[in-house]
Amino acid sequence: MTLWGWLLLSCLLAYAWKLAGYFVPASLLKNPRMSRVAGTMTIGLLASLTIVNALASGQSLVLDARLGALAAAAVALLFRAPFLVVVLAGAGTAALLRLTGWN
Fold this sequence. Notes:
The protein contains five helices and two strands, in the order H-H-H-E-E-H-H. A hairpin with a 2-residue loop joins strand 1 (about 55) and strand 2 (about 60). By secondary structure, the chain is mainly alpha-helical. The protein is flat. It folds into two domains: about 1-25; about 25-100, no CATH class. The protein has helices at about 5-20, 25-30, 30-55, 65-80, 85-100, and strands at about 55, 60. It has a two-stranded antiparallel ribbon.
């Protein structure tokens, strides 16, 4: 199968998965346990995407400026800084680390 075939298949599967959500009974969605599971899955997905984007380059793990930026953003979050300050702390740290040679 060509790349376009795989792309169209993945689009079709994503659309079917979203469409299947409309057929979930409302009583199941109102269940408090289901709300907790959905919230936990969202947090886990976001955390895993963050770690993969911060530590992976292709098929290998790397320690570069992205890890420092993530650490600076985490410290800003610990001090309950506003979101814009968290983003600026991470971006500024990444820029400084890259300036010093941490590619």
